[in-house]
Amino acid sequence: MATVNADAIANLSTTVKDIVNRSYEKFQQTARNVIWLNYTLHGQSELFTAVRQLEFALLQMIQQVSDLISAVQSVLQGKLPMNLINPTILQNILRNISTHLPEGYELLASHRSDNIYLYYELVSVALIGNSHGIKIIINVP
User: Fold this and answer.
1) Which of 16, 40, 71, 120 fits 84 for a cystine, CB–CB 3.0-4.6 Å?
2) Residue 22: which domain range?
């Protein structure tokens, strides 16, 4: 099942990369066409600004997708990256886990904020995903 999930995640990552690359190529062609139009019709500064804003938004999206792919790759190696679940959210998750433990059981390390970074080393992580989404499974000692 883990192999199937890893394959699904890898396929999803490849699919997302392909979509972003195709979108960027189409965007570049559109940008070239708009620049040519702007060059020949000197009064199109608003259009040029809109194209630049679109280009900036696309570059931000490419960076976010790249960050997501890096995070997924870390999770596939069993590591929990901080950019996927920030320390505040992890602390809330650990606090919630602590309240549901049976009497006499406790977490390996306290869930206080000064110990939260230990959990990034202690937890093991797995993914389950398909083409519609990804679920993160965190095994807390």
Assistant:
1) 71
2) 2-76
Number of domains composing the chain = 2
Q: Are residues 35 and 65 in the same domain?
A: yes
Mean pLDDT value of segment 59-80: 89
Asked which of 76, 96, 111 is the last residue of a domain, the reply is 76
CA-to-CA separations, 95 to 46, 54, 114, 116, in angstroms, rounded? 51, 42, 14, 11
pTM, entire model: 0.54
Q: For residue 24, is pLDDT > 90?
A: no
Question: Tokens 């999770």 label which residue?
Answer: 75
Q: Which residue has the higher pLDDT, 42 or 52?
A: 52
* Residue 127: strand, helix, or coil: strand
